[in-house]
Structure formats: structure tokens, C-alpha cells
Amino acid sequence: MPVTQASQNKKISFRAKENTVCPICDEVHQKEQMFQGGGRLIAGKMTQEMRRLYEKNRKFGRVGPNDYVLSVCPRCLYTSFTKDWEGLQANELSELKMSSDQRRSFLEKILGPVDFYQERNIVLGAASYLLAIECYQKRGMGIAPTPKKAICAVRGAWYFEDLHAEYPTMNFDKVRDFLYKKAAIYYSQTLEYMQNGQEPVDSIQGMLGPDTDNNWGFDGVVYLNAYLTRKFLDQLAEKKEDQLNLLIRAKRMLARLYGSGKSSKNKPSAIIEMARELYDEYGALIEEMGGEK
Fold first, then answer.
1. Which residue has the higher pLDDT, 26 or 267?
2. I need a surface site. Which of 61, 75, 201, 208 has the fewest CB within 10 A?
């Protein structure tokens, strides 16, 4: 049934006309997509994690663009970014098919029963990013799974931050911090792969985000690696010597980002300013811990 203008004006999302077939279990479904325009999104400030906040809409309530980014099979819960939905290798297909029940069990332990046949909401949004991390664990290096896991982990942390604010007794803050820590690890690995070519990170520059509002590309990877390393330093390394090495490495990458401190089309003032502040904080902390060797 075609979507009328009147019904479109009352809804946040719609189901695509084209069928989507799951490559894992052959389930046929229609992907949910968000309507554009219509005053649905009211942009707020950007956080230190490069997250764009949106104000609650009087007409539509909560509107979350990230709810609709990932493709999820409602039956077996196979999840990926749309560009990776098909073209799986035989071993990937086998592993993802065998782990379907594990995905659902793991998810329900954190969020309870979920139903992706329903319209997306904050819980299904959070679930989709947890599922994506699990599924990309089983994908080959040819599609650059590590930076995608980094993006999914940091966005997942944002969701659990919001869930914790709404349900403060449900321990969602622990899931949030776990995902931030995983994001820190994945971003650090992504930087290594950018340098040694182990994964084709260049091929996904257009989707590095980390949010859907602005794509900060490789600069965002460098900044978030430094930001998350500083924030979760104690969890990333126990020994002071190892912590110092992590800080020094992140600071040197950060120096390349902010360079002369001048903004440009490729490096807007927002990221330059955040990088400069973080660089100064790093310098003071490294000196406090004994300085660069």
C-alpha cells in the first residue's frame, strides 16, 4: 500500500517496497527506513565523543537516525551495514548460521526479548549495534571489520548511556563502559591497520563517522582513539609503563591531526579545537607520569 502524504507526516519511518532476503536464513522482510525532512530532527549540540544530540520532538517524540542504519534479519538476527549484507564467504556464512541462537541468547541477557519485526526504537537501536559487533567478529578482513566494530561499539555506548538515564537501576551503565572500552581497543587497532594495510580501511573512509551527522573520516579515528584511550586508560593497561606508552602513541597521532591549529574545509574548527584541548591535556599527563622517553 503506498504511503500517503497524510500518513507520512505522522510517522518517523516506513518499510521499503523492495524485499530484503537474509543471506543466512533466507527470511524475506522489508527494511525499515527513516523519512527525511518534515521537521523530524531537531539537532542539538555535539558531544566530546563526536555524537550529535537531538532534541525530543513534540510531534514525533524521540527520533534517532542511528536506529535505522544497520540491516537486521528479524529471524536469525544477522546484522551488518547495508553494503556488507551480501557477498559472504562460505566460512562466514557457516559461522553466522551456526551462531544464530547464541546471538539471541546473548542479546536477551542484556536487553530482554527483542522483536525486529516491530518498528525500531531505542531498545532495538541498542540491540542492532550489539548484534553488529558480534556478526563482524565473524567477517573476514577484506571488508575492514575492525573500524566497523569501532563505530558500532561507540554508537552502542551512546545508546546505553541513554538507556541508563531512562532506567538507572538496570546496570546499563556497565554495558556502556564495556562498549566504550571495546571501542578504544578497536580504534587503536584501526590506526595500526591504517598504517600497515592489514585491513582496507581506506575503502570505508566515507562511513567512518562516528555519527551519521558528520563524517570526520580518519581525523575522527585519530581523535576518538586519543579521547577513549585517555578516558579508559586504567582499563586498557595496568602497568604505568604501558599506560605511558599508550598515551605517547596517541599524542603523536593527535599532533598530526591538529598540526598548525588552523582550520580548513577538510579540518573544521570544531575538531581542531577539541584536538588541541586534548593534546594539551595529554602533554600535562605525560609529564606527570615521567615524560616521553
1. 26
2. 61
Residue 158 lies in a domain: yes
pLDDT band (50, 70, 90) for residue 3 = very low
Contact 116, 74 (CB under 8 A): yes
CA distance 146 to 140: 10
∠ CA 99-104-109, rounded to 5°: 125
Residue 211 shares a structural domain with residue 260: no
End-to-end CA distance of the chain: 68
Q: How many domains does the chain have?
A: 2
From its phi and psi, is residue 248 left (phi > 0), alpha (psi between -120 and 50) or beta?
alpha
Domain range for 59: 12-236
Burial of residue 208 (number of CB atoms within 10 Å: 0-12, 13-18, 19+): buried
Q: What is the pLDDT of residue 259?
A: 64
**What pairing do the DSSP bridges indicate for beta strands 52-54 and 43-46?**
antiparallel
1 in a structural domain: no
Dihedral sign (CA 114, 117, 122, 127)? positive
Helix, strand, coil percent content, the chain, rounded in steps of 5: 55, 10, 35
Inside any domain, residue 4: no
Which residues, 6+ apart, have CB-to-CB distance to 63 below 8 Å?
12, 34, 40, 41, 42, 54, 57
Residue 161: Cβ within 10 Å count? 19
Of 212, 271, 161, the C-alpha closest to 41 is 212
Residue 29 corresponds to which cell in the numbers above? Answer: 522482510
Q: How far apart are CA 117 and CA 282, in angstroms?
A: 46
Same domain, 105 and 181: yes
Examine the domain organization and report whether 127 and 210 are in the same domain.
yes
